[in-house]
Amino acid sequence: MPPSRTFPVTVHPFESPTPHACAYEVGLTNAKNALVFIGGLGDGPHTVPYPRAIAKHLETEPELSYSVFEFRLTSSFSGFGFARLADDVADISALVKYLRSIGKERVVLLGHSTGSQDCMEYTSPSHDLAPVEGYILQAPVCDRGAMSLEIGESKLDEGLRVAKELIASGRGHERMLPKNLPPSFSTTPISASRWYALGATEYV
């Protein structure tokens, strides 16, 4: 995909568990409502182009009064390897609280790919999170399915057995060795606990 052209954003610093957090707003500058984009594995602010296309279209329907926000999660870019869904939803909740504080009336979360898991986690009653008005799951995926397509079920399960053993011995925070990962994951540091959460069919 060719590089994007330059585009303007409004930067919103806000208090969050992730230090120096900022959200980036595109679209209508006086919108009453917010659509918050949550990317997938390896994504971060502005790595996925279609949120800007959504914002551009929303400018043509000002009666909806929505702008689009992106922001950096604990798990953004290569941070996903040692982050948890609980970390992400804490970051999201902090942004939602900020958006309410500046007068946004409706907040909708748009999860892309693995970002859809964050949306699902956000609905869990086990968290005390700022409420939102809705969720959109765009291209929700099964990470295990993608991994098994790359290296096969047997090799995937072999790596997951290694992760499970590390977790059972209290070493779930340790990094998985590249030899136990698909090539597409081998250059990103990822803990045993995170790898097991992404690929296993059961919890430990």
Poorly predicted residue ranges: none
Mean pLDDT: 94
- The H/E string reads EEEHEHEHEHHH
Major β-sheet, in short?
Answer: 6 strands, mixed
Oligomer, anyone? single chain
- Fraction in beta strands: 15-25%
Number of strands: 6
Helix content: 25-40%
Question: Could you give the distance between the termini?
Answer: 39 Å
- By DSSP (H or I, 4+ residues per run), the number of helices equals 6
3D structure, described in words:
- The protein is an alpha/beta fold and about 200 residues long.
- It contains six helices and six strands.
- It has helices at about 50-60, 85-100, 115-120, 145-150, 155-170, 190-200; strands spanning about 10-15, 20-25, 35-40, 65-70, 105-110, 135-140.
- Strands 1-2-4-3-5-6 form a six-stranded mixed sheet.
- Helix 2 packs across helix 3, helix 4 (about 145-150) packs across helix 5 and helix 5 (about 155-170) packs across helix 6 (about 190-200).
- The longest helix has 17 residues, at about 85-100.
- The radius of gyration is 18 Å and the shape is elongated.
- The N and C termini lie far apart (about 40 Å).
- The mean pLDDT is about 95.
